Amino acid sequence: VNRLPNWVSPLQKLEHLSEYLGVDLRVMRDDLFPMTGGGNKARKIVKILELAQREGCNALITNGGLQSNHARVTALAAVQMGWRCHLILHGDPEDVAQPKGNFLLMLLAGAEVEIVSPSEIGSRMTAARQTLEDEGFRPFEILGGGHSLTGALAFVDAVQELQNQCLRDEWQPQWLILASGTGTTHAGLVVGLEQLGWSTRVVGISVARKNPRGRDVVMQSYEELRSHFGLSQPSQEIDFRDEWVGEGYEKAGPDVLKAIRLAAQMQGLILDPTYTGKAFAGLLHLVGTGEIGKNSQVLFWHTGGLLNLLASHYFRDFEQTL
Ligand SMILES: Cc1ncc(COP(=O)(O)O)c(C=O)c1O
Question: What is the pTM of this model?
Fold first, then answer.
C-alpha cells in the first residue's frame, strides 16, 4: 500500500484549547494518516495487508455499515494492491440510494458491494469467500472494524511515532484520551505505552458499547496482545467510559455537539459526531470535573472521522437539537 515512507502522524499543540481548559493539550493527528479519509482504520489496514501479502492473498473481504471507515480503507487499499475487494454492508435503503461519505468512496474505488441485513453478514461472508475461491482468487477475510491482533499491533507501533516526537518536544502525556469502539486501537496504545515504561493514563471513550461489555472487549484485545509479547499479568485496568454513547452508535447528544463546535471554532480542529466528538466530550468532562488536574499534560489521539461528519447531515440532524 502507498503509505508514505517514514510517515509520522504529527503531534501538535492545541494552543487555544490549552489556554481555555488550563491544561497542556496536544493532539496526535492520525486523522491525517496518508490514505484518503485517514484515521485509525487506515493505520490498521496497512498492517493487516502486510499479513495478507505474506499469506499470498490477492483479494479482500470484509463487512461494516455504509459509513464504516474500515470498509472504506479496505476498498482503497485493495485498489492500491491491484486486488479484488468484496464488501458486505448494511444500512438504510435511503442511504444506499444516495451514496455519501465512506460509502461513496467505496463505490468510487470499484469495490464489489453487497447490501444485506445484519443477520445475513456471517453467511454472506462465507459465500463471498467461496465465490472468490471458485474464481481462482485467494481471499483474505477481515473482521468488521479490522478487529484483530494485527490491527492492535499497528497501534503498539504507533506509540513509537509518538515517543520520537515527545522526545523532540521534551513532553510526555500524563493522560491519553481516544475514541474506543472494537477496542484494538485502545488496547494497542496501552501496550505500546507500557512497553515504553510510561505511566500515561489511557481513557477510552465508548462510541457505542456500554459497560461492562465495552470494557471486556478492550480487555480481551489487551490480554491477547500481552500474551503475544509474552508479558505477565496485566499491569493496569482498562479504563473505558461509556457516558457519551448517547442513544448509541452514530447518535450524538448535546455534549458531543458542543464539543465538536468548541474544537472547530476555537482551534480549527475538526471532529465528528460518531467517534471523535464523543471522545472529546469525554475529555472536556474529565477536565471540567478536575479528574484531569490543572496544567496536566493531555494527549488527544485523533482517530479520524471526517467522512462520518460529512455524511451526517450535521446541521439538519444535530444542530437543531441544541
Ligand atoms: C474514526 C474512528 N475512530 C475510532 C474508532 C474506534 O476504533 P476501534 O474500533 O479500534 O476501537 C473507529 C472505529 O470504527 C473509527 O472509525
Answer: 0.96
